From TrEMBL:
It comes from mine drainage metagenome. The keyword Methyltransferase applies. GO terms for molecular function: DNA binding; N-methyltransferase activity. Gene3D superfamilies: Vaccinia Virus protein VP39. Keywords: Coiled coil, Methyltransferase, Transferase. It holds the Pfam family N6_Mtase. The keyword Lyase does not apply. This is Type I restriction-modification system DNA methylase. Residues 1-191 form the DNA methylase adenine-specific domain.
Amino acid sequence: FNSSDWRGDLLGDDQRWVYGVPPPGNANFAWVQHFLHHLAPMGLAGFVLANGSMSSNQSGEGEIRKAIIEADLVDCMVVLPGQLFYSTPIPVCLWFLARNKKNGRFRDRRGETLFIDARKLGTMIDRVHRELTDDDLAQIAGTYHAWRGDKDAGQYEDVLGFCKAANLDEVRKHGHVLTPGRYVGAEAAEDDGEPFEDKMKRLIATLREQQAEAAKLDAAIAANLKELGYGR
C-alpha cells in the first residue's frame, strides 16, 4: 500500500477506474478499484490498506471513496493496532467489500456498514512488536460474521468502543470518512464506586505527601552538592 511509483500517469483512461481516477502519487485506490473490477457478481473481497485510505481527501481520493460508499460496496471496516509488522510500525486497516449485500448467502445488509475498532487488542511480544492472539482474531471475525448473519454465529450487538453497525446516512454525516473510531464511540469508564469528593481528598493528600518527599530529596541533593564544593 501507499505505493508512489506505480506509473498511474500512464493509466488515466483505464476501464477499472469506475469510481474515479486514482492519483499517480498513491496507488491505494487503484488497488481498491482493481479488486472491485475483478469481483464476481456475488463476490466478497478483503484486503489491507494504510489507515490514511479511510479518511484521505488528497488528490481526489476522498471523492473516489465517497463514490464507492454511495455505491454501497463497503461491507466492513476494521482498524488494527500498530506494531503488528516487522517491516513497518505503520498501523493498518482491513477493508471488506461486497458486490451485492443481498446475495442470499447472508442477511440483507444493504445500506449498512460494520465498523470495528480493534486498536486495543493484541499483546506485546517484545518491546516493539504486537501480536493478535487467537482470541483476538476470533473476536474480530466473530463480530463480523454475527453482523452479516452467518449461520450459528450468534446475535450481533453494538459494543461501545469496539463495534458499530452504521447506516449510509450516518456515514454521510461523517463526510464519507470510514475511520471506525468516529462511529463506535468511547468505551465507558469503569466506575470504582468511590464518591468524587472522597477521591479528590485522597488524591490531594497523596499529592501533598509526594510534594513533601520531593522537598526532602531536594534538600538531600543540595547538601550532597555542598559537601562536594558545589553548594552555595
